[in-house]
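re: that chain from earlier
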Amino acid sequence: MFDPAPKTLASPPATARTPAHSATVVPISSHSIKVACSNCNLRELCMPLGLNREELDQIDTVINARRKVKKGGLLFHNGEKFTSLFAIRTGFFKSYVASEDGHEQVTGFQMAGEVLGLDGIASDHHTCNAVALEDAEVCLMPFDRIEELAREIPSMQRHVHKIMSREIVRENGIMLLLGSMRAEERLAAFLLNLVDRLHARGFSQSELVLRMTREEIGSYLGLKLETVSRAFSKFADDGLVEVDKRNIRILRSDLLRDIVGRPDCA
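^ sequence. v structure.
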């Protein structure tokens, strides 16, 4: 909207907040970028395929630092000046907006291979907060350099458009989720989407560790905590999933898809 010993990620910590500027910025060389991108999903975000040597060298200059964000730390906050996009290299984030009285509305959960920061393009300031749900590392992509390269390298421009298009599709999916689905449909769609995204990154197709709390899931899905807990319990009673705190094993993904009412929830 999670996989023979299955790969699992660490359970999420509490989300105590720290200022975004407290994150550690680590300069990296072009060689280390290429090695990292060749072994992870970020290569499709940072280095489009089909580039010649000269174009690769140009793109190397875009990502000149990584930022480490401790669990509970803010990557950026609402109102902060927008300068860069952030490609998640490791870890898990949640994005959220907060009302004046402090109420939080979760707007998304992002994992390795995905991009954060698109919210700041329109107004040159971020319009939400992004907090790490576990120790994380991101690659900084200064947006002014991305714009320059997009004008010079057509495949880079197409890639930027593709990233933005994915965000539009995601937001449309959220509108459908909140506007027309019952509680069980929302949770089923959420679990299927999450496990599909993790499976695409080499993790188990049936087992996952939730980084977020039940309350955060409820905030994202527009449901009360009690409703989320009841839906998990019903799925477990019906033999669709096994639940052990934040460890989830999906037993019948076919039946979960039947609940959502469409063959593919990715």
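The domain at 20-153 is CATH 2.60.120.10 (Jelly Rolls).
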